[in-house]
Specification:
- It is a single chain.
- With about 300 residues, the chain is an all-alpha fold.
- Helix 8 runs antiparallel to helix 9, helix 9 runs parallel beside helix 12 and helix 12 runs parallel beside helix 14.
- The radius of gyration is 45 Å and the shape is elongated.
- It comes from Brassica carinata.
- InterPro entries: ARM-like, ARM-type_fold, ARM_PUB.
Length: about 300
């Protein structure tokens, strides 16, 4: 029995549940039931936008590092500087000289610049004087034969504007423009083909141009093909050129390359059934009479 004056011994601290040092630390953590409750420290929370953006940027950076974008592997295209503009000419003669210098160049960009310069100057106000230099006209013919769609658009506009002057028509014949139009008309765009045929019809008003068209073996097949493809003014121009071929305005004894009149007459009659101008129908009706007479002459000559 304990004495009354004997002091009670203080209670010893509770023995840890584990003697292991590792688990002893676990029991003394904030989650331990034997340790006093402590308010856990709260980490500062970021706003949803910042956290999402940071996580997105982190994932994107990792993705780009792990899987590089295929666009980054393609070689960068080198953009060439635009060609320098041609100097401004004060007179038409200077314009012809500048265009002549560039249209004879090997560079396609120089040729295009020359054509654009001529189109700006010549097409809005077709000149009657001075005449186009022969070398410049030969350059236009060469560009027309180049089988370039963009170039042909410019050339046909310029050629038609130049051929409005009678002096330039003879220059065009000497440069081979009539043969070039006959040989390329079937492959041109519709608008370019119409302009080319209009220029050829003007060239045929000269004796040299008409003779050149009559001598060419491809004139009739090309005009028949273009006549079936075009409508309106283009069809009218093709009929006019066929009328030049089968007409009697040529020089006596000149060599004429023509197709059988019956086949051409059927093609003309078929073309007149479609879209055609009133003047084109009148020309077509006159051409049919000419073809009928031409066929009769052939029959009489063969019979004799």
């Amino acid at each position: 029995m304990m004495k009354a004056n004997q002091k009670a011994k203080p209670h010893a601290p509770p023995r840890p549940l584990f003697s292991c040092g590792f688990f002893r630390r676990c029991t003394q953590s904030v989650l331990s039931p034997t340790s006093p409750h402590q308010k856990p420290l709260r980490k500062p929370t970021a706003t949803p936008s910042s956290s999402s953006s940071s996580s997105t940027s982190t994932s994107q950076s990792f993705t780009q590092w792990r899987f590089p974008n295929h666009l980054d592997q393609t070689p960068s295209t080198v953009t060439l500087p635009p060609p320098a503009p041609l100097p401004i000419a004060t007179t038409l003669q200077e314009t012809f000289q500048i265009a002549e210098l560039h249209i004879t160049s090997v560079s396609e960009s120089d040729k295009l610049l020359a054509l654009q310069l001529l189109e700006r100057v010549v097409v809005p106000d077709p000149p009657s004087d001075p005449t186009c230099p022969p070398s410049l006209m030969r350059g236009l013919v060469s560009c027309l034969r180049g089988n370039n769609v963009v170039t042909a658009r410019h050339v046909t506009k310029i050629l038609l504007a130049l051929c409005l002057a009678e002096g330039n028509r003879r220059v065009a014949v000497e440069a081979g423009a009539a043969r070039a139009v006959v040989e390329t008309a079937a492959g041109l765009e519709i608008s370019a083909a119409e302009r080319a045929l209009a220029a050829l019809e003007l060239i045929c008003t000269t004796a040299e141009g008409a003779a050149e068209v009559r001598r060419h073996a491809m004139t009739v097949p090309a005009m028949v093909a273009v006549m079936a493809r075009l409508a309106g003014r283009g069809r009218e121009n093709a009929i006019s050129i066929l009328a030049v071929v089968y007409g009697r305005g040529g020089v006596s004894g000149e060599e004429i390359a023509v197709a059988p009149a019956e086949e051409v007459a059927r093609a003309v009659a078929l073309a007149l059934e479609g879209e055609c101008t009133a003047r084109g129908r009148r020309k077509g009706a006159h051409l049919l009479k000419t073809l009928e007479e031409y066929g009769r002459l052939d029959l009489n000559q063969n019979g004799s």
